[in-house]
Amino acid sequence: MLTSTLSALLLATTLTAPPATVDADAVDAVVEAYRSQTTLPGVAVAVTRGTAVVRTAGYGRTAGGAPVSEHTAMAVASVSKSFTALAVAQLAQDGRLRLDDPVQAHLPEFAPADPRGAEVTVRQLLDQTSGLSDRTAAPEVGVRTLREAVAAVRGAELAADPGTRWDYHNQNFQVAARLVEVVGGSPFRDHLRRRVFEPLGMGGSETVDTERDLPPSARGHLKVLGAAVALPEPPAFGNGSGGVLSSAHDLAAWLIAQNNGGRGPTGGSVATPETIAATHTPSARSGSYALGWFTGATGSGAPLLDHGGDLFTSTAYQAVLPASGYGIAVMANTGSRHGDAQAIGERLIALVEGRERAPAEDPYLVVDLVLLGAGLGVCAGVVRGVVRARRWAAKRRVGPWTAVRLSVLLLPALLLATLGGVVGLLYRGREVSWLQVAYLYPTFVLVLAVTTPGCLAVAATRVAALVRRQGPAR
């Protein structure tokens, strides 16, 4: 008995007092080293241990030029899923629903075209095993509210029987957020404010519907040729799946609650320890995905709960290390292509575990430079092709092989016209607009946009030269 009591006291001491080697200065050193090696304009970071805050801070500037502080509201993107999962779990804790109830029992408006939709349970929305998929769901065109997001599911087919396959799909959490509204009887944003943000002292946090609701502090950048360019976020709907805005100060309280059985730094509780544990536990079918959290291991083999978040102009990352009591959250104002938030988060995990941290690098800078060089080469080739069109035509006979050679010049135009569909295949069949492709691969799209008219100009001048060489029809 005495041994177990001493062990419990030792564990409590370990979880509430950060070690001397991981303090605010050590956190700052990791973040500033990363920023000095990259072109990350602004980032906010929270590191906690047990019920103690090790560091909350902002670094750099927002897209509008204001300093980033620990209170700057930034987008957490898909990190929002853990908030939505907790909101649903709170209703289960209250006895308002059960996680294994069919969704339609509480939300009749959830009516996919596929009859198997009637079998989808609340838990399957939250652990991404509902059968809904980016490959089969209707696009979220024109969606502006959670009610409309659920209505958009009516045209959806299921990619698998409910509960049989894991498939990451944002609309699962949009449906779940609407479920919170209907069962809880208040707008989703009000539920989060009343049941999550206020009890934890997260006064600077909220959830929004679309990119139009983002405040100036939450707008971000693209990186082009290593330079950060401030741009607005492309149109999208994200409440429930990616709409939460928060700050380093507020996310510290959220992390503490995850490691403290649902109780925040000031004593406010958002759930019982059993409810928090349920959100951290995957089902047999969901693999490593719990309810809004991925489960796994750190580089040292310690248990890890984490989730990333990507917008086109910003990223976020959160991690909870249950064995040591650490929590880490990062929000960066650069887009998903670079993953700066997760890269910093992984370096901070290495810091608290005493592991060596790799230097930061930007592989896309090399890619961008190669693409730029290729674009300049294409421009030179276009000029040469137009100038030498007559000489080219003089060496060719009109026939099938000449037509094939000319048709090759149409390939850039074909790729440009179908680019959204091609990239969509790389993103699990998701609908991807041309504008979104431009945000994901700006240098490639720029080079393609220059190449296309150039190749068409070469094709046109060569055809004209062939026609002139043939002379007037007899």
From TrEMBL:
Domain (Beta-lactamase-related): residue spans on this chain: 27-343
Protein's UniProt name: Beta-lactamase
Transmembrane segment boundaries: 364-387, 408-427, 439-465
Record keyword Transmembrane helix present: yes
Gene Ontology MF term list: beta-lactamase activity
Keyword Nucleus attached: no
Pfam families cross-referenced by the UniProt entry: Beta-lactamase (PF00144)
Assigned keywords, A-Z: Hydrolase, Membrane, Signal, Transmembrane, Transmembrane helix
Leader peptide range in chain numbering: 1-19
InterPro entries, per the entry: AmpC-like, Beta-lactam-related, Beta-lactam/transpept-like
Enzyme class, spelled out: hydrolase
EC number(s) recorded for this UniProt protein: 3.5.2.6
